[in-house]
Amino acid sequence: MADIGRRSFLTSAGAMAAAFAAARLSGAQSASNADAIKGTWVLQQTLTSSDLTSAMLAKALGESNIVGFSQRVSWIAIGGDLTLLESGYDMAAGKGLMYMPRFMAGEWTAASVFDAGSPYYTLTTGQKVPTPFFPDGSPNTIFETSWGNMVASLASWCRTRGVRELHLPWYGQNWAELNNGSEVRSQPGYTYAAWLNAHERLIDLAIAQSGKDLAVEFPLTGDGPLASSGEYPAVRDLSAYMASKNGPCQPNLFCQTNGWGPSTWGIGDFGATSAALEATLDGDLWSKPVYRGEQMIQGQDYDSWPAIFQQLYKNSATYCEVYAANFYDSNGNPQPHLADLRGEIVKFKSYVANATPKPPACHTTGREPHRP
């Protein structure tokens, strides 16, 4: 009986997800990617299926005024089997929410990439991290071929389900973000030009899989140096390349800052170590005609949600991602300032409903929506 009941439940869930996908697909051409994804998303990292069963995540996805579930997974977990993504998609669809996937490379890269001969360095934990270039400085074509195949597979999967944005990783290390840290810079073959070229090649592969029905996104935060105040102006150069190769003001390519929130000196978007560095990075990125979103820096309670959300309006962000843990703790208890967070989500929902936020350089009328 238990098996029959479970089978019936799974059949019902699958039917619901299929109906949800059909509804999304039927409206795919009626709204741009930016129109489709605008608002506040719940973000959760799920390395195994058990991570989807937490009370914290279930309650966060049940919150009013959120638009979807953004699921971060490892390349290792989905390299040969998309079951983990299917489960996340079904969870979102069951609650009437949209869905976005993101896979992480870096230390999470599938073993098959290294087996094929990708260069790498090794962390103290024993984890291998792919190097963006070979010792002669040429691009890591082994990694990018596997990465490109994974992106193509996920793009196809997204399109059959009406998913409108696919988050993508760089070479990375711990996360999906940029990695120009000392470990990478000390590798044979490193020059800033070689590092930059390797990342631009990933942008080319990603844009080839994007379209009016599916946006791709890259984070432009990470382990630096990355600012134009030094000799490695990665944020400036990569955002300019994105705008150039994709075409300005086209919502099939997004950039994201993953350092959105408080720091030791104030509230910013990059997780910068000083206000001066933050200001430089702001100038490197936000003037570009590239659509953008923002992701919370940490999953915890904050007493400054109104100030945090003002960054979205300041930077013309189309969407934001808030961790499930920003809403509830690991036991499913409300965070102390949940009411403040809810209030800001409502304001942001009203703001994006009034007019889909665009990069400042892309306003044909010269006006932005009224800020709360």
Write the layout of secondary structure elements.
Layout: H1 2-26, H2 33-37, E1 39-45, H3 55-61, E2 68-74, H4 75-78, H5 83-94, E3 98-104, H6 111-115, E4 120-122, E5 128-130, H7 141-159, E6 165-167, E7 178-179, H8 182-185, H9 192-209, E8 215-219, E9 222-223, H10 234-246, E10 253-262, E11 267-268, H11 275-285, E12 291-296, H12 305-314, E13 319-323, H13 324-327, H14 338-354
Parallel strand pairs: 1-2, 1-13, 2-3, 6-8, 7-9, 8-10, 10-12, 12-13
Antiparallel strand pairs: 4-5, 10-11
Helix pairs in contact: 1-5, 7-9, 9-10, 10-11, 12-14
Q: Roughly what fraction of the amino acids lie in strands?
A: 15-25%
List low-pLDDT spans: 1-13
Main sheet: strands, sense, barrel: 9 strands, mixed
The tally of beta strands, per DSSP, is: 13
Query: What is the name of the CATH architecture?
Result: Alpha-Beta Barrel
CATH first level: Alpha Beta
Q: Specify the structural class.
A: alpha/beta
Individual helix count: 14
Secondary-structure element order, N to C: HHEHEHHEHEEHEEHHEEHEEHEHEHH
Distance between the termini: 54 Å
Mean pLDDT: 92
What would you report as the Rg, rounded to the nearest angstrom? 20 Å
Helical content, roughly? 40-55%
Number of domains: 1
CATH superfamily: Glycosidases
- Oligomerization: single chain
Shape: globular
CATH topology grouping: TIM Barrel
